[in-house]
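A quick aside before the break. I want you to see a complete sequence-to-structure record at least once, exactly as it would be stored in a machine-readable document. Don't worry about memorizing anything.
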Amino acid sequence: MSGNGAGRQQNISQLIAETIGMEMERDPGIVFLGEDIGYSGGTFGASRDLFRRFGEWRVRDTPISEMGFAGMAVGLAMSGWRPLVEIMFVDFIGVCLEPVYNAIAKNRYMSGGRVAMPVTIRAAGGCIGVAAQHSQTLWGMLAHLPGLKVVAPSNPHDYRGLLAASIESEDPVIVIEHKDAYLRKTTEFPLGTEIPSGRYTVPLGKANVVRRGGDLTLATLSTMVEKSLAAAEVLQTDGIGVEVIDLRSVVPLDDATVTDSVARTGRLLVVDEDYLSFGLSGELVARVVENLGPTVVKGVSRLANPDLPIPAALSLEREVIPNEDRILSAARTIVASG
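That is the input. The structure line, written in tokens, reads:
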């Protein structure tokens, strides 16, 4: 890779494939497993050219058996390899959840640290009109399982840096890539378009304050960062200064950065493209209130998917997931309340 990524007409799936290639060149112990990742270059094109470059031993085009290749990743990791696993849709992780939460997540702990589990699982999540079984993000569910790190990038810079950091981690990491981002050009994003020419990592568990403001803290991640930034621009014309925080990861959760922000703004809005109940939004609100106390936090609000399956029709899907208008309404309500 040469030059700076700022002006390159490259989409996110190309960026991911390029990043995986850089990591496989750096570490010959990386073995890539998944359905259709070989000759076809992946369902979303995120493994293009890797089979040609690294061959069938290191890029393993597997049968449609998530349980089988998730179990293979466990054995590879225990044998000193560094497996990278692609689950085509994060919804399909249910097929292999047993080895994920009973082996990949727990083996390092149960071995007293003697057995490393450097397994990275990439999975596509998010809503693009593909119905209830292909539209979830599920990071709240996965974050509930001790031993797993869970990350969700929002921009080109972080797609590369967080993936590289995940692959080199000695702990298992699940990287949830938003399907809506795959075919978008890196130059189309509102932030993170500057991509260094060399390899770099973004620390797991360190949030990024992407906009400063003094009236309201808005914490979010993945594609909701972009929608939140757009809403913040509108709110600025109303005299409301919104501080937007890209969490980047659910585990580790950087509640310290959010707490510091809310200590100044006094208000917190969490925007989440995951289910409302028992998830990220409730956890983050609880931590901030516990850290600061109810007298400091003047108002909290959560905007997330209602607790129902994602509809198939795009028109109905748009009524379910958070959008700019709902973010505007929630922000105005919480500021007006006190």
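Two observations worth writing down. Residues 1-7 have pLDDT under 50 and may be disordered. The radius of gyration is 20 Å. We'll return to this after the break.
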